[in-house]
Amino acid sequence: MVKAAVLGSGSWGTAYAKVLADAGSDVTMWARRESVAKSIDSDHENVDYLPGTTLPSSVRASTDAAEALDGARVVVLAVPSQALRQNLGEWTELIGPDATLLSLAKGIETGTLMRMSQVICQVTGANPSRVGTLSGPNLAKEIAAEQPTATVIACPDSNRAIELQKACATSYFRPYTNSDVIGCEIGGACKNVIALACGMAAGVGFGENSVASIITRGLAEITRLGVALGASPSTLAGLAGVGDLVATCSSPLSRNRSFGERLGSGGSLESAQEAANGQVAEGVKSCTSIRALAESYDVEMPLTDAVHRVCHEGLSVPDAVQSLLGRRHKSE
Ligand SMILES: NC(=O)c1ccc[n+]([C@@H]2O[C@H](COP(=O)([O-])OP(=O)(O)OC[C@H]3O[C@@H](n4cnc5c(N)ncnc54)[C@H](O)[C@@H]3O)[C@@H](O)[C@H]2O)c1
Ligand SMILES: O=P(O)(O)OC[C@H](O)CO
């Protein structure tokens, strides 16, 4: 039985802790707030982030990271991207020297423009072979309801990838291994921005043609960036690319798509943030870092640029649409 620590008790950390426990792993979660840890530990439910899901009684929780990390062979990092560096600084000393670190976050750090695995290696000093990422069409609520899905676990060390795969494989959750960490991380971070764009289109009142066009052209720009950074195009054509992009861009459960929809229907950034109710829509910050990353590699990402300008430069959604459609005509 693998001993796992899940650091972060939001909706995905909680749903993934259930998956690990259902797969037979021994799981302790870390929560920032006492009330959340208590609700998981005593009532087997995360009332704040995943209400209505009964967690296996084997899932324990604490606000003490040392308790969660004690003896953990697998350390799952489930806090939002922009909070990872600061938290990791506090956890590094408590992480076992040979533990495998698995990132669940889908974002690019602002300022440094680093992917999460790079942040993890830099802060903890871990060799990249110990660091993996999990990404795919994985809406937490559907997984908590045990609806079947697949995912990708990417790690440069294939033995560790297989260990991580075994630790979370259940009758409803099917993990595939991969060695392309860059592709999985770029797919996961960038699709949130494209989901914001799809939400904006839906919020304005556009239908499926518009959304399908954004998904498809979104995939083209994600693939351009991924390949420039060294990713394999086949990763972006797989679960961590197309799979996640389609799920996130199409589902009303996606916080990014919903956020975009609020902006598209005329809401302000502040009102959309308020409606998100403390839940993270990673694309809102990552659109800026992804845009800067793309610029530094001379990669064109017009949709990402438009989302950044709507979110952070006051461009209206109708004006963003006009500027996208007014671009020079070219071949596909
Ligand atoms: N929810 C999903 O369906 C889903 C699926 C796949 C991946 N993800 C990714 O997983 C990551 C976590 O998302 P989530 O859905 O669990 O988020 P969430 O908004 O549901 O919860 C965020 C959690 O992080 C904690 N948190 C927020 N700021 C923090 C800080 N500064 N320090 C420590 N903890 C902090 C919150 O208290 C909460 O426990 C994100 O990168 C997201 O993109 C989410
Ligand atoms: O709710 P979102 O928009 O953060 O998306 C959730 C997951 O990343 C889907 O795989």
UniProtKB/TrEMBL annotation:
GO cellular component, one term: cytosol
Chain positions recorded as sn-glycerol 3-phosphate binding sites: 106, 136, 191, 244, 254-256
Keyword Lipid metabolism: yes
Keyword set, alphabetical order: Cytoplasm, Lipid biosynthesis, Lipid metabolism, NAD, NADP, Nucleotide-binding, Oxidoreductase, Phospholipid biosynthesis, Phospholipid metabolism
Biological pathway: Membrane lipid metabolism; glycerophospholipid metabolism
Residue numbers binding substrate: 106, 255-256
Protein's name in the database: Glycerol-3-phosphate dehydrogenase [NAD(P)+]
